[in-house]
Design a protein that fits this description.
Layout lengths: L1 H22 L6 E11 H7 L7 H9 L4 E5 L4 E6 L7 H4 L6 E11 L2 E9 L1
Parallel strand pairs: 3-5
Antiparallel strand pairs: 1-2, 1-4, 2-3, 4-5
Length: 122
């Protein structure tokens, strides 16, 4: 019986360790706060669609699974990602499409792409 209890404790500890590393691990990068407009990246990259006149289309694109980005006041474009693994920005930011917001999170740049794993939006 004690061996079963010890084995169960080891399995539980391994699962908790894996979950901590994979679910709660913060992305590696610099803390950042950026103000800009929420855009759907498909239309913005294709024909620079943005603003209130593109809001309905942007929401439709985001609901279809196209990624959401932040076009900063300085003209920088960021892919927006959820902070936790297996989460998207779409579900949390879709209603802010075409709005100016301030995003706080972790900035990551790789292979010419820049993204923000966001933690807060105002």
């Amino acid at each position: 019986m004690n061996r079963h209890l010890a084995a169960s404790a080891i399995v539980i500890a391994a699962i908790l360790g894996w979950a901590t590393l994979h679910v709660f691990a913060a992305p590696k990068g610099d803390a950042i706060t950026v103000t800009g407009e929420i855009v759907d990246l498909h239309c913005y990259l294709d024909h620079e669609a943005k603003g209130e006149g593109h809001k309905t289309c942007g929401i439709t694109c985001a609901k279809a699974g196209n990624p959401i980005g932040l076009l900063s006041d300085k003209g920088e474009l960021y892919l927006l990602l959820g902070e936790k693994k297996h989460s998207t920005a779409n579900d949390q930011l879709i209603e802010k499409m075409a709005s100016t917001v301030t995003i706080t999170g972790t900035a990551v740049k790789k292979g010419g792409l820049q993204a923000i794993y966001f933690t807060a939006v105002k």
